[in-house]
């Protein structure tokens, strides 16, 4: 079994906002770990009785905005500084309950306004479905509660979407070179309340362990609405999920085993 899993647990979980492209800095510190044997991303469960959590700080700085209809617009300098918490607990060998994000963010637009506050809270569960050959299969469901404030910055700099959201994803992943190299892909459905558009969501990641505590990797993720026309209430805000595909690359620390 061990040769099918990434040999260390990734402490770096980078997320892009709807604003892109941008200069991006991510720093993640693993504050506690009871030696999970699998990556917390992808189809691998962390195992019964095991816990993991981390805090992540991100920095987004851009002068370009991607609106819901895919148009790229020039805007005054926009900065986003989110600080988030991620936690997971293995209820069984197959089931992991997760707090996907509890966060606080500060946003600012030059010569306009700034706002700060609690983000929408995301929590759910990960179920490892089994194995087909060398591939691990899993399902994951996340619910996003509207704990953020949509009125921040006169509604231009909200800290949440203002509606309940949720996504269900199915994924598959495997490792090579005795766990030093791993990859996974997943696809699912995103349901959004209010008049926000439901969408197809997808993600894939490839990672390589340069050192037992150093991981390098790349991620491609996307959100593709089922309807092409934007709703009246849809905005190109960095709060919530944006439309289209984005790519991340990162180098960061990993939790010790």
Question: Can you describe this structure?
Answer:
With 257 residues, the protein is an all-beta fold. It contains no helices and 13 strands. The radius of gyration is 18 Å and the shape is globular. The model is unreliable at 1-40 and 234-242 (pLDDT under 50).
Low-confidence stretches: 1-40, 234-242
Total count of strands: 13
Shape category: globular
Q: Roughly what fraction of the amino acids lie in strands?
A: over 45%
Distance between the termini: 16 Å
Q: In terms of structural class, how would the helical and strand content be classed?
A: mainly beta
- Rg estimate, integer Å: 18 Å
Please tally the helical runs, counting DSSP H or I stretches of 4 or more residues: 0
Main sheet characteristics: 13 strands, antiparallel
Order of helices and strands: EEEEEEEEEEEEE
Helix content: under 10%
Give the integer mean of the pLDDT values: 75
């Amino acid at each position: 079994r061990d040769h099918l899993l990434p040999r260390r647990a990734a402490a770096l979980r980078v997320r892009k906002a709807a604003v892109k492209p941008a200069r991006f800095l991510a720093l993640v510190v693993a504050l506690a770990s009871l030696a999970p044997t699998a990556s917390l991303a992808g189809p691998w469960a962390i195992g019964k009785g095991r816990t993991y959590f981390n805090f992540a700080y991100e920095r987004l700085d851009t002068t370009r905005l991607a609106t819901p209809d895919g148009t790229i617009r020039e805007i005054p300098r926009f900065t986003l500084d989110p600080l988030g918490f991620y936690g997971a607990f293995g209820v069984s060998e197959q089931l992991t309950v997760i707090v996907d994000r509890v966060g606080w963010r500060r946003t600012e637009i030059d010569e306009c306004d700034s706002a700060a506050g609690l983000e929408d809270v995301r929590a759910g569960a990960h179920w490892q479905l089994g194995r087909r050959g060398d591939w691990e299969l899993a399902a994951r469901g996340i619910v996003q509660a509207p704990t953020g404030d949509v009125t921040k910055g006169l509604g231009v700099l909200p800290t949440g979407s203002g509606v309940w959201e949720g996504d269900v994803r199915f994924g598959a992943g495997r490792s090579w070179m005795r766990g030093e190299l791993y990859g996974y892909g997943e696809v699912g459905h995103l349901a959004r309340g209010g008049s926000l558009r439901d969408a197809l969501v997808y993600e894939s990641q490839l990672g390589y362990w340069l050192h037992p505590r150093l991981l390098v990797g790349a991620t491609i993720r996307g959100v593709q609405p089922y309807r092409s026309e934007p709703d009246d209430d849809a905005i190109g805000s960095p709060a919530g999920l944006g439309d289209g595909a984005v790519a991340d690359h990162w180098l960061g620390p990993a939790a010790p085993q």
